[in-house]
Amino acid sequence: MPATCDVRLGGRRMAMRLQLTAGHEVLESWAETASQAERNVVYEALFAVGDGSAFLVYDIFGDPRDPGNFLIMVKPGLVLKVMVQRAESAFEIRHVGAVDGADTAAAAQETSSPE
């Protein structure tokens, strides 16, 4: 039986498989200095996001300032921030690393986004 994402829309649970479409450079940049063990747990979390099981396995927090963005607590001190695009069945990596870095990454994206 395939894993499903426990997302509630209108009171109903939906199964959602997502494809990674952007943020590869964020992951590659972080991976250059990460240990093999850290890379392994982050890759495992990314697969869980893709197959929809992340919401069942990890502590995940929505970003009230940026709807569609989620912080996934991969392990103490290590988070993965992703933006889910439900309409496209896609997600992108926004940040990998320390929790405080996720806020810095969000601020950088806000200032670099065209209005």
Short description:
Helices cover 37% and strands 32% of the residues. It is α+β, with helices and mostly antiparallel strands and 115 residues long.
What report would you give on this structure?
The protein has 115 residues and is of the alpha+beta class. It has 4 helices and 7 strands, in the order βββαααββββα. The protein has helices at residues 24-31, 36-51, 54-57, 99-112, and strands at residues 7-9, 12-14, 19-22, 59-62, 69-75, 78-85, 90-97. The chain has a 5-stranded mixed beta sheet. Strands 1-2 form a two-stranded antiparallel ribbon. The longest helix is centred in the middle third of the chain and has 16 residues, at 36-51. The chain is globular and about 35 Å long. The protein starts with 6 loop residues before the first strand and ends with a helix.
Give the tags.
115 residues, alpha+beta, five-stranded mixed sheet, 4 helices, 32% strand, disordered C terminus
Mean pLDDT: 79
Number of strands: 7
Helix amount? 25-40%
Integer-rounded radius of gyration:
14 Å
SSE topology string: EEEHHHEEEEH
Gap between N and C termini, in Å?
Answer: 44 Å
- Please describe the biggest sheet, giving its number of strands, its sense, and whether it closes into a barrel: 5 strands, mixed
Q: What class would the helix/strand composition place it in?
A: alpha+beta
Number of helices: 4
Poorly predicted parts: 1-14, 107-115
Q: Largest sheet, order of strands side by side?
A: 3-7-6-5-4
Instruction: Assign an overall shape.
Output: globular
| Content of β-strand | 25-35%
